[in-house]
Amino acid sequence: MPICDVCLNLYWDLYPDTSSRSKDQTLGNEKNHTIGSSDSLVLSANLGCERCSILHQGIDAFRQYTASLLPPWEPWDLSGPCTVDIILRPGRSLHLGLTKSGHDWEEEQGKDSVTQPRLRYDIPLGREKYEIDIEYFTLADHPAPPWAAFRLGKQVPEILDKKMAIQAIQDWLSSCTDQHTCVSKQLPKLPTRVLDLAPLAAGKPIGGSKIIETQKKTLAMMKRGIPWSTLPRTFQDAIEISQELSIQYMWIDSLCIIQDDTADWERESSVMATIYANTYLNIAATCSKTSDDGCLKLRWMEAMVLDQVWSCPVKNVRIEGSHEGRPFEIFARLEQWRAHEDFLKNDNVSDIHIRSPLLARAWVFQELYLSARTIHFHSSEMIWECKECVRCECTELKNEMNRENALSRRRQLEIPFLSDPNQRLFFWLSIVNEYCQLNLTHESERLPALAGFASRFQDQIAEKYFGGMWRNDLVRMLLWCLTHPKAECIRSRPPSAPSWSWASIVEYENPDTRGDNSPQYILVQGSCTSFKQDVNAKILKVVCTASGINPFGQVSTGTIFIRGIVIHSILVRRRLLTHIGVNAVSTTINLNWDNSVSIDSLVSTYSVEYAHKFPEICVAADLIFEQEEDDAVVITRQSLLPDIRLGEKEGILDGDGVICLLLGTSEIPWSRGVKLPRIMASCLVLRHSINREGAFERIGIMMCDSDSIIFQHGASRVVELV
Questions:
Q1: Lowest pLDDT segment from 58-67, 68-77, 168-177, 196-205
Q2: Spacing of C-alpha 379 from chain mean position
Q3: How far apart are CA 467 and CA 556, in angstroms?
Q4: Sign of the four-CA dihedral 31, 34, 38, 40
Q5: CA 655 to chain centroid
Q6: Global pTM value
Q7: Cβ distance 445 to 554 under 8 Å?
Q8: What is the pLDDT of residues 615-648, one digit of tens each?
Q9: Cα torsion through 357, 361, 367, 368, rounded to 10
Q10: What CA–CA distances, in Å, run from 697 to 476, 491, 658?
């Protein structure tokens, strides 16, 4: 058989190997063949290539579909030639990537900037700029094509109804019960309060008009019965699904905890780890922004993502043909990778608030880690997650559980690999990295919302817990930093955690952007052995008092007495002035997929008016060290990576004396051509406490070469850190 120059007959052996790509770009091994223009597919199809004809029909079908979208969906114009990537992956069906990058250069005279060429990003999506992915697959009960690249898949219904949802959940439940040990065979003890679904008669799913919750004055009435019409749509859907699955009891926090009773809330939140761990099934309305959005609805997806996002309803396309007299059917759909990415990635959750708002909530984090089985109602498909597998309606996610991603990490508390306490403590760093990106309505709940997970974690390591950190790894755990240390955060007032805890940071801008600048352990997370504690750094005593009865909850006071090398310094705020306006240096610390670290600096230009209105935005800071060497004074300047805003509001001023406390060194493989590795010293930067005489508060960290001259004149002392 002659080889088609365009599709290479979809033969695996003829495609170039792209398995060496970064992990952010590749899910497992893949082979990618790029076609310069989609017009080549059309020409090849017209010349008789059956495979090119199938691929072209799929592209053409979705061009027609996207162009015909009606409100509230916005139509897309995807006509014209584009770059086509044919992607083959072992065990998966064929994917097409369609890309058209619109760009142009223009000169623009800004109000406060010089005339300069810049790349235009305002070219509208569609026709001139787009990026979409199409998946081709076959169905088990339909005639299959003779080409192995089109593998078996399943259709995702365009509208999810209760009958289809129940059937899928029953299949997954049955498989898990028969093949796994996720749920104990013994019936667990029920929580303090539950909903009894047996006497509850479902009515018309109209949804409640406002949020319903149990309060002191309504508790007796709620015990007598809850009118169906008062329940939000999501609660109604979950109850009907549970009844169909013969589940009698349900626990919903807003109904089963007395919301205006602090003692009851603390008591119940302290046992959440047990509640989640003992659930038979956790139902997650992952795509719902509010409790009245429901679970059963029209499916939609984000199908095109560049600097903008366009969405559309889920759509399946049928392609019919015949080969050597034998008919076949192939189906195509826009690939579900955006839905899958919400579950696979844990390094950045700042872009999931539309598709998966539930996953961006901090209170849900421990539910997902502690529940044995969860069924997610995502915007585009249902996703099943248990301790031993993950499944989705389109079947693509079945390949991901054994790879390193957020899904596989959720079961690591159960596997022998983490039986070593040192491994588990290192695992905690990644937990904090993920959790700190998530949103809370009240930042004072940052520690309580992780309390269930922390108590479960303590069962594994048998260590003392202090404000989000563990005693036997406390020195390293003090070395968190902000992802973008640009002095735009504040600490809560009154404090919800000590300054040395990552839980003390509160952002003052839009809470949906928290993931863009959250506390991270990026500088000490290269590997579990990369950080070396300084021989002089020693924790002497820790005093940490919980605000309530839950020892893993909010902290009222916390003090660490630590001995270590201290270097005195002067804090100097700097303004970078140009002839145009005021510039701000924004530093971004990146932990790359290969564990190398890079630091990016971005200089932003602001108008003079903006700089006067928001002076803290335009200020960075350095630390000045003075050492006497023979007859000279050596002045060394190092950059401060701040935790909080600098200025009068926070009481951090030019010329303030601060101390740097050396905690240890890290072997960091800096990227961008720097010789590897590089030994960097890590120091806490502390100022005198404004609340306790003689004590110090954390304001940031400093990193510099471990052989820097500033350490030659340091002295060991005990520091009281609050």
A1: 196-205
A2: 17
A3: 10
A4: negative
A5: 38
A6: 0.83
A7: yes
A8: 545 456 789 998 777 777 788 888 888 888 777 6
A9: 50
A10: 17, 11, 10
